[in-house]
Amino acid sequence: ESDFVLVWEVKPRNSRSERRKAQLAQWRNKFTQNLQNAGILLEKEETASEKKTIHYLNLSAPWDVLVYYAEELILRAPLQAQPNPNFNTSDRILRKLYIPNLMAESLPNRPLDYYTCAFRKSKMEKFLGCENHDTYFTNTQRQRIVYELLARTVYGKRKRAEVGVARLLNEGAYTAAFPLHEGPFELPEYEVHPDELNQRQVLFRYWARWSKWYKYQPLDHIREYFGEKIALYFAWLGFYTAWLLPAAVVGAFVFVSGLMSMGTNTPAHVVCMCWQVGYLFDHPGTVFFSVFMSFWAVTFLEYWKRKMATLAHHWDCMDFQEEEERPRPEFAAMAPSIEYNPVTGVKEPYFPERARLSRMLTGSMVIIIMLGVIHHLGYISLGFLCVCVCVCVCVHACVVFFFPQAGNIANISSSMVNLALILLMGQVYTALALQLTKWEMHRTQTQYEDAFTFKVFVFQFVNFYSSPFYVAFFKGRFVGYPGHYGTLLGMRNEECGPGGCLIELAEQLFIIMVGKQLISNVQEFVIPYSICIQRLCYGKKIPPVNSPHPYPSTSSVELLTYDLLHSSTVLQFGFITIFVAAFPLAPLFALLNNWAEVRLDAHKFVCEYRRPVAERAQNIGVWFNILEALSHLSVIVNAFLIAFTSDFLPRLLYQYKFDNDLNGYVNFTLAYAPPSYTSHPMCRYKAFRDNNGNYTLIYWELLAVRLGFIIAFEHVVFIVLRAIDWMVPDVPESLGLKVKRERYLAKQALADNQEALLVSHRGSASSQG
């Protein structure tokens, strides 16, 4: 059975020069020869056609090679089996209450849980299953070992850093390198026992189907097949989706209460329908929901840290640390010099740190300029389109006598145009971030991915959140008053509609958030099937996922990294926390999207992508820091949103000073136009100004109330958040005891005393000790 496959193509009429083809062939020959010298077994196959010949080189590692590198890579070895722990809190609660759990399901071939310790060849007899050489190492462990050999094997001159399959792929010597899936995912036509299904079929039957949308994810099976990094992603997505359920219920309740309060709200009775809609979101319930979501976000992250620590321990990754990384192939090819690595003592490509810092500083300046200039130009285009939309809507409104609603329709239309612009600019920003990251010459893949992730998130943060921030905090703030309107570049500053800025912000958030989710899910669902239909229509055979050109072709580790970490989910987290005061239904739409997202991603990994190399990880990396920053930013933004965008505080002040039932509140918020502007005595506008356009005492009282509310809101919420952080430890106490116990067992197992292991029979899966 093959552990890995290398693929390359040879075309009879190739545009490449004969010299280049000979160079690539020489590299391949030396590479395969060195692999054979390292003990790897090779088996070559090929398929020929008129246009090209595709060569396949199947690689497999014999027992001696596996044993040698298992000790060098510090793989974990099983000492003793134990029952699998139940990590689903809801399942444990329902069991205690004797309530049937429809989400639970019995899965075949669940990976066993073991006491484990670092593998040592000299202690082989102490490890379970060592007598069976074919099944002792899992498929993911075999892949890791073979990929490690592929990454360190020389194909040219070592002093030129001509090492590793990654650089050969970059040079074009190979077109693909990947581990094979374990057979087809399609279920047999005849009835078979579940235990007879292969791992891929088990994942398809019990996880990657739409009918399993309400079932628990088989995380142990996912980890066994794809590795810890991908399993942690799905664990994070499932955990986040489960926590969205209470937030969605409370948000829906707040929305319904706002809907019901429109009939009993005194100000809503004396204003037009467009103003009444504003009270749908602008009521005391949104203040409660803002505080609730602030507590929800921090509590969710604290319990995710506990879940993450528990899974890392269960999967033997708690103390995992990446070894000294090799230079990226692109870095090795473009580095100007060769110097000794101070850690490994080996000569490798070198790029001066000062030059890199200079490039990173220049890249930062480019980011700032692009965020300003391109986004400004984009909004000029948006403004032009919005003017066109508004003109068309207003003309149509006059014709059908629907004029009072034209403003809302125009706002919705402009938001849809804004969404299209955001999606377009997102592609531009991502391409720019990729080119800047390449130009900065980061040495390792981890440094490269972190830099790329940060740039993309900054770009997308500004791209998606700039228009909501503008509506929430800038639109209508610098309008002026009749006769003295504020202008920018000769154009009158934009003001909010009769319903206020909060309803416009809610419309923006709904269209941007839900629209992006719908478009993304439709693309993920439709594109693979459209490719299949296109190939069938042209009479082409659809290649299997294990072929060099499956559909889609995005299957390498580098291309999966950004998709795997899913910045869209992090942006979604920002929408449901930062602007939740304006859109309490955001958690509900996020919940519905994520239910679909889990199954779409599962189907892609099981049925469409090549099998990626299993990677180890103990957390979700830099994304957790970004989530924490967003949760703290949400407290500040919601405080300002309630204070300056909502009418909550003006109503509260009016109730305190004038009338508890809000009789006359609408007149309280309106000012008279200056006599110099109009002779009509009843020309009024929304502001706290006197007849000459000066701010009244009420304005300054309200400003003091708003600033006081922001200070009180932030201090109370942050104090409670710190209390939650203190009360919820990052690592459960029971897990801390297990870690100490297991480290003791590992030392005993690897000691020279042969009876040490027999002394202790209890424990749980060990982390590296």
From TrEMBL:
Q: Does the keyword Nucleus apply?
A: no
Sorted alphabetically, which keywords does the UniProt record give? Cell membrane, Glycoprotein, Membrane, Transmembrane, Transmembrane helix
Q: Which GO terms describe its molecular function?
A: chloride channel activity; protein dimerization activity
Any Pfam family the entry gives? Anoctamin
Q: How does it sit in the membrane?
A: Multi-pass membrane protein
- The Anoctamin transmembrane domain extends over 222-742
Acetylation in keyword set: no
Return the InterPro entries for the record.
Anoct_dimer (IPR032394), Anoctamin (IPR007632), Anoctamin_TM (IPR049452)
Q: Which GO terms describe its cellular component?
A: plasma membrane
Q: Where is the Anoctamin dimerisation domain?
A: 3-219
Where in the cell? Cell membrane; Membrane
Where does the source fall among the domains of life?
A: Eukaryota
Annotated PANTHER family? ANOCTAMIN (PTHR12308:SF15)
What family does this chain come from, according to its entry?
Answer: Belongs to the anoctamin family.
Designated name of the protein? Anoctamin
Q: Say which species the protein is native to.
A: Oncorhynchus tshawytscha
